[in-house]
Fold this sequence. Notes:
single chain, 23% strand
Amino acid sequence: MADTTTTSAAKTTSPATTSSTTSTEVVKAETTGPLASQQGRTSIADTVVSKIAGIATREVSGVHDLGGNTARAVGALRERIPGSRTNLSQGVNVEVGERQAAVDVDLIAEYGVSIAELASGVRRNVIGSVERMTGLEVTEVNITVLDVHLEGDDSDQPSESRVE
């Protein structure tokens, strides 16, 4: 019981020292890391991370396209408009915090590719690219394979008519 009283008394005799040390430590913790320094903080928008992740995913051999049917249809229409650009973040959703990011990727795989190896390669490339370019720690990359693309199964090509 005497130890508890002594501890309380010790805390009350030096609260200024304890609180100043604590606030200094908090400031140091907030200003450490690649995106924060004593000169200021850098924040990165979700769209930046999703674009980086989309490009990194497309670089992996065996990825045919990103996004579901609706997203790809809208993307195909967008590409036909003169002056428009390809949506590089199509099929990619991200959550970006101050120090970390989580990525979700929806993709179409090429037929014949090992989906487990494809997912591993996409994960490795996305994590490497996002961490290298942004300084954010990527906590997870969730991959959903929505379809398998067969050679000659392009929806862009007109199908042959069965009737003449």
